[in-house]
């Protein structure tokens, strides 16, 4: 066969790698980073993705996982075992809350939720067995922005690890590990892959020993990412920078438009001067505020359905961060598993629409929203 020097990494669509003999096998065990044995333990495509995410986040190492959920599970199990307790910011993706409250509690890991205003003084929440705090750089769905540097000094003072879900912000906007955070997780399904065609996750650690433990968990629990999904995600990642610029540009224009619209009761976007953490978001995000926003129209089922049906180019799709815009409905999708009381407390009502602003022409987006709002 002729010599092959591909410009891009081929897809190593194999579940296993071959060895010449037992000496060759021993080389793998001596230096596992120089050889591959079995795709669940490691594959060139998932390693390529992990390396790219690691260098974007500025970590000591990373591991790719089968989803954002398995990234959170890996991260939590890196630090916690049965009998431990963890803290979680009250406003968080509903799936993360379900994992902690409904599943990890069954394995003997207790969880307490900390309201946003209490995050920087944790004394009343920390117990002798508390191991970590989980929060999001920008919360899902109402875009509350956490002061990561301040939070990291508080968790250090409390003697616990800080685990940050950086899915909404991406490392283009904020690099939590540079601000003192111990571990970052991503739903790579979202901006990092960016084209709504991959389900994937990543864990990045500030310390090499932590990521070694995460890798061990990924392998033993079988939370690895397949070669093809890794390849797709690594491909998407190459355009993250340019995509984020356009997501942010469009989102600010849309947020300003919705803010001034008489049928819109409230808009949550960190780029608006009226947002409670606008100044913090500006500093922490180097002037970029992300592509996600939420807004409230009338808390009425017919109004919401009419609006959804009237949109011509922005589908209702319960995910986010693709190149084309989409809307979602937190009450009925991502935050469905919360109790009615929790939903009410967080302000997630029937009229709240979450908008994932894509990279389309700004005027086209504004026109679609305008004609749909006209109909409600
Ligand atoms: C902020 C955040 N973290 C984690 C997840 C879970 O990611 P995945 O769906 O890739 O498992 C999601 C999913 O929507 C999310 O929005």
Automatic annotation (TrEMBL):
One of its GO terms (molecular function) is carbon-sulfur lyase activity. Pfam families: Cys_Met_Meta_PP (PF01053). Keywords: Pyridoxal phosphate. The keyword Transmembrane helix does not apply. It comes from the Bacteria. One of its GO terms (cellular component) is cytoplasm. The modification N6-(pyridoxal phosphate)lysine is found at residue 190. GO terms for biological process: transsulfuration. Its cofactor is pyridoxal 5'-phosphate. Belongs to the trans-sulfuration enzymes family. PANTHER family: CYSTATHIONINE GAMMA-LYASE, TRANS-SULFURATION ENZYME FAMILY MEMBER. This is Cystathionine gamma-synthase. It comes from Pontibacter ramchanderi.
């Amino acid at each position: 066969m002729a010599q092959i020097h591909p410009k891009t990494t081929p897809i190593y669509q194999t579940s296993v790698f071959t060895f010449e003999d037992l000496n060759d096998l021993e080389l793998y065990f001596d230096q596992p980073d120089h050889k591959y044995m079995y795709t669940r333990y490691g594959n060139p495509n998932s390693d390529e993705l992990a390396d790219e995410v690691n260098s974007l986040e500025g970590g000591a190492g990373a591991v790719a996982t089968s989803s954002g959920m398995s990234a959170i599970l890996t991260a939590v199990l890196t630090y916690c075992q049965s009998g431990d307790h963890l803290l979680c910011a009250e406003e968080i993706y509903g799936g993360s809350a379900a994992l902690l409250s409904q599943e990890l509690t069954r394995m003997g890991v207790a969880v307490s939720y900390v309201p946003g205003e209490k995050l920087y003084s944790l004394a009343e929440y920390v117990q002798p067995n508390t191991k970590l705090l989980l929060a999001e750089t920008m919360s899902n769905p109402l875009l509350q922005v956490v002061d990561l540097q301040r939070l990291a000094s508080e968790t250090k003072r409390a003697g616990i690890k800080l685990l940050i879900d950086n899915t909404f912000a991406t490392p283009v906007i904020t690099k939590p590990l540079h601000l003192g955070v111990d571990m970052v997780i991503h739903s790579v399904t979202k901006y990092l892959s960016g084209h709504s065609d991959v389900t994937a996750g990543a864990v990045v650690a500030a310390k090499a020993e932590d990521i070694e433990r995460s890798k061990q968990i990924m392998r033993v629990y079988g939370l690895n990412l397949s070669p093809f999904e890794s390849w797709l995600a690594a491909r998407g990642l190459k355009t993250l920078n340019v995509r984020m610029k356009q997501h942010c540009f469009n989102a600010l224009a849309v947020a300003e438009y919705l803010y001034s619209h008489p049928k819109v009761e409230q808009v949550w976007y960190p780029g608006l001067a009226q947002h409670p953490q606008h100044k913090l978001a500006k500093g922490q995000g180097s002037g970029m505020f992300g592509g996600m926003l939420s807004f409230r129209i009338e808390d009425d089922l017919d109004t919401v359905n009419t609006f959804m049906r009237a949109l011509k180019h922005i589908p209702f799709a319960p995910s986010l961060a693709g190149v084309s815009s989409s809307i979602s409905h937190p009450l009925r999708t991502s935050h469905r598993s919360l109790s009615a009381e929790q939903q009410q407390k967080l302000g997630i009502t029937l009229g709240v629409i979450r908008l994932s602003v894509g990279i389309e022409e700004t005027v086209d987006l504004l026109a679609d929203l305008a004609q749909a709002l006209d109909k409600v």
